[in-house]
Amino acid sequence: MIDHSSTSTPVTDLKPVRRALLSVTDKTGLIEFARALAAHNVELVSTGGTSKALRDAGLTVRDISDLTGFPEMLDGRVKTLHPKVHGGILHIRSNPEHVAAVTEHAIQPIDMVVVNLYAFEKTSQKPGVAFAEVIENIDIGGPSMVRSAAKNFEDVAIVTSVADYPALAEELIANSGSLTRATRWRLAKQAFAVTAAYDAGIATALGSIVEPSGPAVFANDQLPTTIRVIEPLAKTLRYGENPHQKAALYTDGSGKGVAAALQLQGKELSYNNIVDLDACWELVSEFDETAVVIIKHTNPCGAATGSTVLEAYKRALEADPVSAFGGVLGINREVDADAAEEIAKLFVEAIVAPSYTPEAIARFAAKKNLRLLQITPADTPRVLKQVSGGLLVQDSDRLRVKQSDLTIPTDRKPTQEEMRALLFAWTICKHVKSNAIVYARFSEGHGQTVGIGAGQMSRVDAARFGAMKAVLPLAGSVAASDAFFPFPDGLETVAKAGATAVIQPGGSVRDVEVIEAANKLGVAMVFTGIRHFRHG
């Protein structure tokens, strides 16, 4: 005979749900969950719009004003801030004094609170939103109930996520209308994370408002006085950069970006996959035209534009087919069947794109380990990097250079084809680890990398390494340098490799010497006036 007693749920661990207070902004799944509660004879108490939604669905609902004996007032600002609500939530059922107090004042127990909060961040981010509307969307009663219920998790279940509804409904069935302590504890921890994130969002938004009247004026060009990083755990990863390191993925809740991308197929994403995918998507998103980027260890090894995804992919692969093996692909257009057919011939770890045709997905299906991600673009205004004892914060490098921004200090001016190649190379160079030199060309109406020198301690070495990596002919190419040439030797190295035009920030104390070297070699050179260091 097998003894199951050690694995069964202790009776004292279960707490029945007899009365639930529901007050939600997001009503997704609300009716189904309320019906699951009603099936266990749970009394439903509700407020405002939530109460109406439940009644419209045919459910029996008790208004909050009936529970409290006090009407909702001040345009709904005061409805749950009442002793009969918080006393019903907060009293400890096993404490005789608490029980006597709530009995004396006719306070009825509330065993479950179902709350999601006013959409403050969504409201505050609306273009032209009025300051008064921002303030009005600061939820007071909701967070108060969430914190009360979470604090008293021993007796009360706090439900803050729509995603928890199905599992809770199943647990109520399994336990005849009761929930386990483990579940209540899990929900409580989640609830405190919700209120912390909510308050952080309010503090961040209000902290950037410079004019508290009329339309809310946000000082988006100023760094915040306090950084609050509160992001929920999305999933635990197998390991970090190396197998001996623990790792996990956290998300900002926006449902956008690589962190929230929909994985259509393939093995579980690794820490390094996610880092490479993010680098890939950042670069390929820079292009308005159809583009494909192949990333290896966060650096591009091949990048190109084209009339179609297939054409762009072939050109990107042609730039460095050896390094592309086992790489990550970023594509800024829907992937079709023709492109999928060709891409499937190469071993790649992962692909990120905004969408895929059904035919493309069918062709990738044979590559069972290939991680296929569908992304919704996200705006990341700032970059955070942890250092010992603190954080470094900076604006994201969103600056794009146009031809009209450039100055030409050399005797020879770039041809129009060289100019287009220079701007293409400059875009790629921005996403290469410093010191960076990128060789590129513009042919058949589209840009293509030729050789990439990444992460070298010397700019001359970066120029030499980029030329060494070139598979395509360097003669007639152009070169981009992410920072100025401190000496003429870097310029001379790219010219010797075959580059006929160079794009660089300028600003060196030896600019005159570099310009003289370019003139002597017949190289056209343009200055951007800005640099694009990328230290990681």
Report on this model:
- By secondary structure, this protein is an alpha/beta fold.
- It has three domains: 11-218, Methylglyoxal synthase-like domain (Rossmann fold); 256-374, AICAR transformylase, duplication domain (Cytidine Deaminase, domain 2, 3-Layer(aba) Sandwich); 403-527, AICAR transformylase, duplication domain (Cytidine Deaminase, domain 2, 3-Layer(aba) Sandwich).
- The protein has 19 helices and 24 strands.
- The strands form seven sheets. The chain has a six-stranded mixed sheet, sandwiched between helices. Strands 4-3-2-5-6 form a five-stranded parallel sheet, sandwiched between helices. The chain has a five-stranded mixed sheet with strand order 21-20-22-23-24, with helices on both faces.
- α8 runs antiparallel to α10.
- The longest helix has 27 residues, at 181-207.
- The termini are far apart.
